[in-house]
Design brief:
Number of strands: 8
Number of helices: 11
Largest sheet: 4 strands, antiparallel
Strand content: 5-15%
Radius of gyration: 35 Å
Helix content: 55-70%
Strand order of the largest sheet: 1-2-4-3
Order of helices and strands: HHEEHEEHHEEHEEHHHHH
Distance between the termini: 76 Å
Shape: rod-shaped
Length: 306
């Protein structure tokens, strides 16, 4: 089951009283792609939607409405369920019940009583919402049929502390949310608390995996840094040896140079601990800088002599 359907399944369980059922159906109808004076078409590939719609119609309109229900195969196990209301009198009945003007659909908060705004948002999600599997990315979106409805929905989300962005895609005004905490707030508000917990657990696993990767990358970077530094130090010492100048180094530098040639894999700290008079990492680094300076001068002299 897709994560979107998990959300739908959970919020559908919360439609247990008429006020919430009324508000949920309002959200589905208002944000349906096709809603004219002549026809209303509600479509979804969600099996949860197919089970919920008959219950909502019965709860709100009793036996007054008779949508034409059709199921079309989309290949494999996928089916598109379509509820069509093409009787003008029934369309008018819906418009009167919810005070919907087909030519200018907008959210009317007067339709939402007894804290049923969350059920209305759940209905909007049923009608035009979807969510990508959070294991892949955090992305919740609503494909709204008009700019006005998109704007109204954006204001509604802002009212619960959720900020969304909108774009025009294939003649649909898409409102999307990418911030994981805002997605969690939206799911919780709609009544999908378990899905919120699932999302939070996924975030925790991702964070732990990312931290482990950062530690591993940091370790690899440190190892590479040590190896590259040791190679440069060894090359400097070998040049000094080639020039016959090793014995001219001070006892402290000569001891360190010999240790480096014998232990190319050791870190500065480990080399410092092996010296006859142990010193810290910074002291070892300072001595290698002196060795590098001597090697550089010998190379310059050799270049001039050529």
């Amino acid at each position: 089951m897709s994560f979107s359907n998990e959300v739908r399944e959970e919020i559908a369980k919360g439609m247990i009283d008429r006020d919430r059922q009324f508000a949920c159906l309002y959200g589905i109808l208002l944000y349906s792609r096709i809603f004219t004076k002549e026809q209303i078409i509600l479509q979804s590939e969600s099996p949860v939607f197919a089970k919920l719609m008959p219950m909502l119609f019965r709860a709100v309109f009793r036996t007054e409405l008779h949508p034409d229900v059709r199921t079309v195969s989309r290949g494999g196990d996928q089916y598109m369920v379509s509820y069509t209301i093409s009787d003008p009198s029934q369309v008018e009945r819906i418009c009167q019940t919810y005070h919907i003007h087909p030519e200018r659909r907008e959210i009317r908060l007067s339709n939402l009583v007894n804290n049923s705004l969350s059920a209305f948002l759940a209905g909007v999600f049923f009608g035009c919402g979807s969510m990508i599997n959070p294991n892949k990315e955090y992305h919740l979106e609503f494909n709204t049929p008009s700019q006005l409805l998109c704007s109204d929905l954006k204001k509604l989300l802002v009212g619960i502390g959720v900020n969304g962005k909108s774009i025009l895609r294939k003649n649909m005004y898409v409102l999307y949310v990418k911030d994981s905490e805002h997605i969690e707030d939206t799911l919780t508000y709609m009544g999908a608390q378990q899905c919120t917990i699932t999302l939070m657990n996924i975030k925790i696993r991702k964070d732990m995996r990312n931290k482990a990767n950062r530690v591993r990358n940091c370790d690899e970077a440190n190892i590479n840094k040590v190896v590259n530094a040791a190679m440069r130090q060894t090359e400097d010492i070998q040049w000094i040896v080639k020039c016959g100048k090793l014995e001219t180094l001070s006892p402290e530098l000569r001891e360190l140079a010999q240790l480096r040639l014998e232990n190319p894999e050791l870190s500065l700290k480990e080399l410092g601990e092996l010296l006859s008079v142990p010193i810290g990492r910074s002291g070892v680094n300072h001595r290698f800088q002196k060795i590098a300076s001597i090697a550089k001068e010998l190379k310059r002299s050799a270049a001039h002599s050529e």
